[in-house]
Amino acid sequence: MTNQKDVGKVKLANQEVDDLKGHLDIEDRGSVLVVRVDGGPHSLFGLDIANQLDELVDRADNDPTVHAVVFTGAHPERFVSHADVRWLQEGGAEVPPVGPRGAAAIIRTAKSVDRIRALDPVVRKTPLWGAVQLDRMHETFLRMNRSGVVFVAALNGSALGLGAEFAWACDLRVMADGDFFIGQPEVLLGIMPGGGGTQRLTRLIGTHKSLVAILEGKPFTPEQALANGAVDEVVPPKNVIARAIELAGHFGARPKGSVAAIKRSVYFGGSMSLEEGLQVERTEFLGTAKSQDGQGLMIDYLASTDDTGELPFYDPDTYVRAIELGSVHGRRSRVNK
Amino acid sequence: MTNQKDVGKVKLANQEVDDLKGHLDIEDRGSVLVVRVDGGPHSLFGLDIANQLDELVDRADNDPTVHAVVFTGAHPERFVSHADVRWLQEGGAEVPPVGPRGAAAIIRTAKSVDRIRALDPVVRKTPLWGAVQLDRMHETFLRMNRSGVVFVAALNGSALGLGAEFAWACDLRVMADGDFFIGQPEVLLGIMPGGGGTQRLTRLIGTHKSLVAILEGKPFTPEQALANGAVDEVVPPKNVIARAIELAGHFGARPKGSVAAIKRSVYFGGSMSLEEGLQVERTEFLGTAKSQDGQGLMIDYLASTDDTGELPFYDPDTYVRAIELGSVHGRRSRVNK
Amino acid sequence: MTNQKDVGKVKLANQEVDDLKGHLDIEDRGSVLVVRVDGGPHSLFGLDIANQLDELVDRADNDPTVHAVVFTGAHPERFVSHADVRWLQEGGAEVPPVGPRGAAAIIRTAKSVDRIRALDPVVRKTPLWGAVQLDRMHETFLRMNRSGVVFVAALNGSALGLGAEFAWACDLRVMADGDFFIGQPEVLLGIMPGGGGTQRLTRLIGTHKSLVAILEGKPFTPEQALANGAVDEVVPPKNVIARAIELAGHFGARPKGSVAAIKRSVYFGGSMSLEEGLQVERTEFLGTAKSQDGQGLMIDYLASTDDTGELPFYDPDTYVRAIELGSVHGRRSRVNK
User: Fold this and answer.
1) Does the beta-carbon distance from B185 to A262 stay under 8 Å?
2) In angstroms, how far is the first alpha carbon of chain A from the final one?
3) Which of residues 216-255 of B touch C (CB under 8 A)?
4) What ipTM goes with this model?
5) pTM
6) CA neighbor of C211 nearest in space, from B325, B171, B168, A202
7) Distance between CA C140 and CA C170 in Å, rounded?
8) Which of A220, A177, A173, A162 minimizes the C-alpha distance to A77?
9) Within a 10 A sphere around the Cβ of C212, how many other Cβ atoms?
10) What single-letter DSSP state applies at residue B220?
11) pLDDT category of residue A92 using cuts at 50, 70 and 90
């Protein structure tokens, strides 16, 4: 399929990658940021993308005007091809030859070391550097799960390995119909998913479907991904970004504090024992119940109930409008506005 | 939809609510109790219902003749509308302004305080009172999950918020077909589910479907609830209670000790790590294996195997009858009885 | 259905069981072992089978040339009927009369005692012997979950109780079409699943379907089992073993270290809290990334990318072949081989 000319062209591109490096193009659309992931000609997710993603999540999380982020691929047919394999290979080669217990110790040490980022120049020269980077990327994805920002993956094309794991770390996924695929082929490289795939795909589509897919290394077609819940919608390629922005606007219209509290309760509490999970829920609930948004909307709800004689959620028009707007406003507040 | 006359009527009803208060009507049908939840004209779940539910669960759990409880709504078109929002709003307003760490501390303190119920008159005057009530309601629902009693929600109509959470805390759900809905709209009030919704719906229909439903605040129709497993059956409204009683009788016919052990293993063990869950199962299993029911039925099973030359579960008639009766009785014991 | 003659015949068979005892017939087919479970005329899973299974798993796990094991039943219409009920009944009768807290203590003691197998002759005479045996069987099934060997249940017929639990402990399940069934009828005996059923079925088909099935005690038909994910494939009876061997070969072709790491991450990490699960994944990932298989295949992948100008996983032929072979080999290594 590739001829000499192609090889030559891409070889040139490969050399350029070192200079180009990956980067994120951020387009500000008010409450929604549209982010194009440019991983170079091969559309790879490497250290540069990881670092810029960490900054972006931090910014979106802390800026109260940002409610949602849409990620899409800069490559015409790929969301993210997969991780930069050189990054994984060199990271793996650096790990000292230890058993599983030793590996767990390295992970723990990496976690501690990462808290003191001033040490970076030192750590960069040690065999722990790969483990530290891995730990940071996990932390970035976890911050996405903890955040009041709604993250939507606009899968304009294929996504394997870390590309798929990046999509699983989002809250919603829209995928382009066509000859594309999404999945975890790592087993075929003698490794395994390392960006959260064994955990997030398992919680997304269930233990057994996740196990079989990851053990086999065969990706899902868009139809299969939709059928098993690995993506939320499959639409024609030209509509992927527009639909993702629409979903981002819809879900992002909810109070940011509620979104954060719900995401933390479901992603974290929902993966704990039932009793521990309920403890997380109670804590998050009290946080929202005393919030300005919560108090204001509840008082409005009570007043509207008194005024109209009916609970607003049992007035069909009011409930439908609330779902559209992202919060329920009683008859009175509507008149006042 | 509401005109002046209606508003007047309901306003009157609203005033009466303070006197009426919510209550549970309990109908004793032998091994099955049928409980009508009367939350006043708006069908709200407030503190009175919560307290009476706690007593009811206690009674059903401790009375060996009670094997199942069916809950249904006294309102013609609603199971439970949702929580009494005044209760949530005032509870939230009382929470001291603290961060998540502080909220977790309040929850922990509430848990300790709740162990010494003699303190109630004191606690009632503190900002912790709301958190204590929340903690008690969680404990009531957890006791339902731990119990050998089979709880069936007969959803004669709609259920939102705490109404839905009450249904998720049951073991089985039958819902009326029609223009009804069930779900968690809390996000639209700037709050989030606080009665276990983020935990039990997540474990019932899976992490992602639960996340999307709770983030959006849009309820399920009966058909959608059935399709995603949020309810077990959808039947014509006039059949809801009869069908729920039928299921209550069927599942309640099983040995109460086995039902309790299975519920604890699945609800609690099933939400822990695999190794911890297996530890729960082993413990519960030994409890049933040495029980009078277990020993008697196993000895009977062995004798019947010897008498007939076939394992009773591999005699189709015997197995079908066992499923109907709730326990397997070999040929010999059938003749003797 | 059974007449005097049958009864006589089987009674004789029953007496023979004590002499025959259960055993495993192991057929060596290179990287795949085909194991026929012979539980005597009633096809029961008792202590002998448990002990031989433990040895087999140990052998398969430690022999680098063994990549998969297929289990099937020696009985013409049954995989494993269920546990030897005498074993359960006597084990239960031995448990001292204690509450749940006491049972938990017995389980813990059994776990400690089991570490010192030299004590067996002593323990055999104590009431703990049943608990120790239970603990060992759980440990055998857990070792199957931790192992780099792919275990496939070739369900040539029905499987109840421990027979079903043995199948849930495998990685894949192929079931014969026909008048067969698989499930957990223990509740009808006044006991509950004790071989992992409440935990593994719950994680396989979801909390609620598992709860209902185990509470009711009614088994799944092959079609139902397929529909809810309790088995992977249903094929004509004569094809069951061949198809299971095919799957064993396909999945067993993956690098054994990757298979083990993936199974541990999904089965164990996937049942923990999200953050704990990610910790397990990171540890397992580093183990594979520095492995010989991983380093060799990644270096080959990078070289092939340079040579062809395309990522091998984005060359359709290469990816399809990798799924067939179990590992991805770039153009260069293919030429060299």
Assistant:
1) no
2) 63
3) 229, 232, 250-251, 254-255
4) 0.90
5) 0.91
6) B171
7) 11
8) A177
9) 16
10) B
11) confident
